[in-house]
Each structure stands twice: as C-alpha cells, then as structure tokens.
C-alpha cells in the first residue's frame, strides 16, 4: 500500500430544472429548426430554470444528492469548491450561499470561474487540497443558469445553452481516485467567446453587443476546442504512461456532439464508451461534466474500478482534463 493520498469520488449527484425547452419550442421564437440544431450540435432539448430559481438552488439540490450517495453529512465537509460563471450574486460567492443552506458553515467555500471548464478546474483545486492533506472531505459542484444571459432573439447562440448542476463528494483515500488533472488557459482569445458586461469595466447594458448576451464566434471556438482537447487528451495519457485504449469512459463537456466525436476519434473510443447528454441537456457549462458523470454512475454505465477521462473547454479560453479511477 502506498502512502500517497488520492481523491476518491465517494458520491455523485445532479439536478436539472423542471422546464424543458425543445428545439421545436425554439423554432417558434427564432428562425431555426430541429433539423438545423440537431445536425449541427446534437442538441434536441435543454432545461431552463424557473423564474426565481437560481444557480444556488440547482447547486444545492445536486449537492444534497451527492452527499446522500456518499453517505456524508454536510457537517463533515472540509471544503466546498463551486465552478460557475453565472453566480447568484457578485458576492458572496455561490459556494458560500450553498454552504449556508447545507448547514456546513465554517469550512472554506469559494467559486471558480473558468466558464465551461469550471467543474474540471474546481475538481483540480479540490484534488490539490486533498493531496496536500489540507482537506479530507470536499464537495465539488458545477452549477449554471446560463440561459439567464441568453438573448432569446439571437439564433446563433440561444439554441446552444441550458441550465443544470452536478456535484461530487471527494474523500481522501489511500487506494484509488484522481490520478492527474491538467489545466490550461489562453486569455488572448477572449473575444471569441465572452460576455462583455462587467463590474470594473462598468455596466453598459445599452451598448451594442454589451447586454446580457453571450458573444461567440462559433466556428473559431469549434476549431480551437477540437485542437485544445486533442492536445490535452495526449498530455493526460502521456503523464500517466497510458495507452489510449485503456480508457473505459470519456466524460466530455457537452457543448457540441461533433466536438465530442472528434475527441472520441482521437482516443479511438467507440461512441458507446462516451457519455453523451448534450442531446437532452444542451450546453450547461460548468454543470455539464458532473451532470454527465452522475447520469453515467446512476444508470450503472460507470462501474467502480474503471478508468474515466473527464475534459472540458470554454470561454477564457480555458480547458482542462482529469483522469481518475472511479
Ligand atoms: N438555426 C438556423 N440557422 C442558423 C442558426 C440556427 N440556430 N444559427 C446559425 N445559423 C446559420 C448561420 O446564420 C449561417 O448561415 P449563412 O451560411 O447563411 O451565413 C449558417 O447557419 C452556418 O453558421 P455557422 O456558425 O457557420 O455554423 P456552424 O456549423 O459553425 O455551427 C455552432 C455553429 C453550432 C455554434 C458551432 O460553431 C459550435 O458548436 N461551436 C462551438 C461552441 C462551443 O463549443 N462553445 C464552447 C463552450 S461555450 C462557453 O464556454 C460558455
């Protein structure tokens, strides 16, 4: 037995808002069609938070399910890390709001903003706390209400996004768990995918393109995402001395089925070994990877002892991966 500490996933949970918006519903709002959306993105429908339902609400529900699955009480948590780019408030952080609602007051709690890579970033941070011995039981959440910054008259972006949250409870373990995480960012590509509204630059809701809308140069983002994910998959395999055929499941960020298929091809992995939820969830940003993971665990697809590769790419640009033995 090694004296190394790993972060083992003790339980997973997720939550989706009740309201479902189909492609046909969207075709009533903008000039689009189920055929266009499904063939370009793989998305058929997405969930949309109800009026008054916030990122904290989604995160709390996902967290409760993860705690229950792990058999962990909120009072046992040493740390809460929450990936989001749609916090309830500028401050306090959504992690603090969730902490209080869980009744876990006292442990450190903070948000990580890495757009769609938020959960993978948060997982990596949590893993480092556990490996260093600074924490033993950590709640990691990815939660978003991205539809709140969607311009429902803008067909190029409104068809892509949905709301949702996923969570995992990590526990220090001597045997198995997260083998490595890899994070990258390139702030030079800011304007290919961004929301220009801010605090320090001033709120300028009346300027062109500066309202609530997500600005995205879809084609360029697509190409950068495929390239960056190819590279990070190679980096992850190499760092662990693994052959690509040893991966049991790819659990990718769910932005676009064609991006997912490109990464699967790189891994020579049949699509039956790839967890796909984008058809029903759309792009839930930080929520997407833990939502997909939870679905794969609860459906019995992912089994204890299997090797999972998680990856994500998002605004920033940011991208990251995590290799773990479940
Ligand atoms: N319905 C019908 N037609 C549409 C729609 C729509 N919803 N949206 C765009 N079109 C039209 C365009 O106007 C264009 O028409 P034109 O040829 O007459 O000019 C045509 O369809 C093709 O548009 P493209 O933008 O070239 O379509 P593309 O095949 O690139 O697909 C998409 C667009 C789906 C956005 C794709 O580029 C993509 O998925 N990009 C990556 C998105 C992503 O991964 N984001 C990362 C994370 S997001 C985050 O971090 C918050």
Automatic annotation (TrEMBL):
Catalytic residues identified in the record: 116, 253, 283
Keywords, comma-separated and alphabetical: Acyltransferase, Cytoplasm, Fatty acid biosynthesis, Fatty acid metabolism, Lipid biosynthesis, Lipid metabolism, Multifunctional enzyme, Transferase
Reaction(s) the record says it catalyses: malonyl-[ACP] + acetyl-CoA + H(+) = 3-oxobutanoyl-[ACP] + CO2 + CoA
Pfam families: ACP_syn_III (PF08545), ACP_syn_III_C (PF08541)
Pathway of action: Lipid metabolism; fatty acid biosynthesis
Stretches for region ACP-binding: 254-258
SUPFAM superfamilies from the UniProt entry: Thiolase-like (SSF53901)
Domain (Beta-ketoacyl-[acyl-carrier-protein] synthase III C-terminal): residue spans on this chain: 237-326
EC number: 2.3.1.180
Domain of life of the organism encoding this protein: Bacteria
Domain spans labelled Beta-ketoacyl-[acyl-carrier-protein] synthase III N-terminal: 110-187
Cell compartments where the protein resides: Cytoplasm
Keyword Transferase listed: yes
Primary localization class, coarse: cytoplasm
InterPro entries: ACP_syn_III_C (IPR013747), ACP_syn_III_N (IPR013751), FabH (IPR004655), Thiolase-like (IPR016039)
Family: Belongs to the thiolase-like superfamily. FabH family.
UniProt cross-references to NCBIfam families, sorted A to Z: fabH (TIGR00747), PRK09352.1 (NF006829)
Domain remark from Swiss-Prot or TrEMBL: The last Arg residue of the ACP-binding site is essential for the weak association between ACP/AcpP and FabH.
Subunit structure: Homodimer.
Known role: Catalyzes the condensation reaction of fatty acid synthesis by the addition to an acyl acceptor of two carbons from malonyl-ACP. Catalyzes the first condensation reaction which initiates fatty acid synthesis and may therefore play a role in governing the total rate of fatty acid production. Possesses both acetoacetyl-ACP synthase and acetyl transacylase activities. Its substrate specificity determines the biosynthesis of branched-chain and/or straight-chain of fatty acids.
Protein name as annotated: Beta-ketoacyl-[acyl-carrier-protein] synthase III
Organism field: Cognatiluteimonas sedimenti
